[in-house]
Amino acid sequence: MTIIGTADEILAELQTDAGRRAPYPLYERLHALGPVNLTPASPAYAAVANGYAAVDQILRDPRFVKGGPPPAPDADPITTALSNSMMFRTEPDHGRMRRAFHAAFTPRRVAALEPEITALTDDLLDRLAGLGSDGPVDFIAEFGYLLPAGVMSALLGIPAPDLDWFRTRVQRVEDYLDFGGRTPEKVAAANNAATEMSEYYASLIAARRSKPGDDLISALVQVIDAGDGDLTDEELIGNLLVLFNASFVTTINLLGNAIPPLLERPELVKALASDPAVAEACVEEVLRWDGTAQLVVRTASEDLEVAGVTIPEGGLVLVILGAANRDPARFPNPEVFDVERPDKRHITFGAGPYFCIGAVLARAEGRLALPRLFQRFPDLALASPPVQSAGLALRGFATMPVVLGN
Ligand code: HEM
């Protein structure tokens, strides 16, 4: 018999190395306790929300606040950059910046990227074939990272050779942002990374201002200079930093997390390779079953009741998207990977005012890349068990050695 324990105990287990790598049994125990659970012993959190309906309600309710004020003049570089972005600001600044981005990052711009995604996928598959011709190759480093990073470089107009430079810096910001364990070393590394990336973006903005291209940065500079976007250069830098981070630390895992469940289902892989509707269904079920964004945080701006539980004013709520996606009250047999389930409407991209701005792009990358991967390498197999990364907010594999077959 499983001992369920208290929400505080489960929350503590979630933060251990073992809990980070295998959170789903812990989510099951949270569901057994209820959709929202107070955590009085936690020094950081007042409650965890794990039920689907409760998570959805919290994300849509502006009284559960996200983000903070503009950065103080003497804030460190990482705080300054993040606090200058929509993701880390409260209303009305959040909405103001988000609108400026929407004006430039349109569905048309994403649709125009689709041929680029396909061409880049094919180039990367050629490269992978070369690397994997006589032994295992790491799918995460050699494909999972390079595709979303390449797509973002095309979108933002970042020269492709600079992507290696970005990778380590983006990771330092991600380590800083992950749930718990912010050491002085991590803070120092994130500050260096933020300084360097901010300088990089400042010079890119200056270059695009004097010679515009058809990339997103040029479009955003035009929005700023026309004065109708109500965005500053500092905010553009902060948002670019967050956008680039938010785009590929997540999509890398969408691609990676898809591989193990698909490889266990050869018939599905065949169908996926030839039928775009199956590819789309697979992407959605991967996002539900093993979503890359597992957690977000909100603060109750007053005493607020959700699912019969009162979250006290000022209390921080850990909103567990990954648990909501495995809520048995919403998804029958939630632990089963089933692309044919009639309702796969997961909450991995969030909901409400902070809903992911890149959801259409991330979905397009999965839908276009996975079929081409399996068309090219129908016998792709794991060479050894993939290694789960220790991130909890962002779930995915650190390495995944594969053999390409043939
Ligand atoms: C599988 C891929 C992705 C997942 C799972 C994901 C997930 C999320 C989630 C859960 C949020 C909301 C955070 C919250 O409510 O606190 C979010 C916001 C955001 N995402 Fe994504 N994301 C993905 C890909 C992308 C891509 C490709 C981009 C950019 C092109 C992007 C840009 C953003 C931005 C800018 C925000 C902040 C929106 C705001 O603050 O209003 N994401 N994402």
Give the oligomer, counting copies of the same chain as homo and different chains as hetero: single chain
Strand content: 5-15%
- End-to-end distance: 46 Å
Structural class: alpha+beta
Strand order in the sheet with the most strands: 1-2-8-5-3
- List each distinct ligand once: protoporphyrin IX containing FE
Q: Under the CATH scheme, which architecture would be assigned?
A: Orthogonal Bundle
H-E string: HHHEEHEHHHEHHHHHHHHEEEEHHEEEE
* Poorly predicted ranges: none
Shape: globular
Please provide the count of β strands: 12
How many structural domains?
1
Notes on the structure:
The protein has 406 residues and is α+β, with helices and mostly antiparallel strands. The protein has one domain (7-403): Cytochrome p450 (Orthogonal Bundle), CATH 1.10.630.10. The chain has 17 helices and twelve strands. The strands form four sheets. Strands 1-2-8-5-3 form a five-stranded mixed β-sheet, sandwiched between helices. A three-stranded antiparallel β-sheet has the order 4-12-9. Helix 7 packs across helix 9 (146-156) and helix 9 (146-156) packs antiparallel against helix 13. The model has no long low-confidence stretch (mean pLDDT 93). It binds protoporphyrin IX containing FE (HEM). Residues 59, 66, 86-87, 98, 242-243, 246-247, 250-251, 254, 291-293, 296, 348-350, 354, 356-358, 361-362 line the site of protoporphyrin IX containing FE. Protoporphyrin IX containing FE binds at residues 59, 66, 86-87, 98, 242-243, 246-247, 250-251, 254, 291-293, 296, 348-350, 354, 356-358, 361-362.
